[in-house]
Known about the structure:
The protein is an alpha+beta fold.
Amino acid sequence: MAVVNLKQELWAATIVTLLEKTSTIVGVSNRDIIETDGADTYRIVGIGEVTTQDTPAVGTAITYSQVTDTNQSFTHNVDKTFGIIIPDRDVLESMEGWEALYSQRGGYQLRNEFDAAALGDFINWSSTTGVPTTVGADASGIPDFFSSLAENMDSADLPGGGRYIIVNPSMVQALRIWFADKGTDIGDDVSVNGAVANVFGIDVFMSRNLTNLTGIDQGLAGVKGQGIAINVLTPDLIETLRDKDGWENYVRGRLIAGYKTYQSDRVFRVAHGDNVLQ
């Protein structure tokens, strides 16, 4: 019994690591949310704007206004499960630890499903203006692309720090081509999954889970920790079940998570219609 419990804890810990470190959108989203009593609904609390006024003349009173706050909520809208069979004979006759590898793969697939779902929320993101949808086969459009993106962020009064963009593999290839004669390397920062480079103060992340709409991948850009809220329940529901009538174990896992775009003016949909291989 002790060994079975230990295996469950090890597998669960591995899957937690995959979910936390390999989901691109989790790393750039707001996770500072308030859990309500029901635990299935989460509140995103914000502050309202403060109004300024011309300083009154001497003897004239200042006008004081009440401050306001904002409150948006979301529930868990992703619920995914995997289940695998672990026959005793296969465990004895196969390489040691293979069952853990499949459990890890199950966790990877759960991450993929959630990443794709959250990145598919692009209909609630603001569309960028003036950003070219192609960077050209020679990647010469990279400077125009990123300078236009930066201008969109500046016009939206986004903070200068923490800016990011999530792109597709073709855009990463364009960056490699463009960087080739710049005397610098990209891809040396791997502390966050998908990290590729920093271009003009914008951190570039790559994901294969961008939604494709009429042949064009819908990328995401914004400021880390703003605009999109996410809550991923840690997979405590990883279980190993013993078949009482046979000689095998069943391993199952479940991911319950939620996401919401709560400030559409602070996240941008950026179309990636280029293919530098052509």
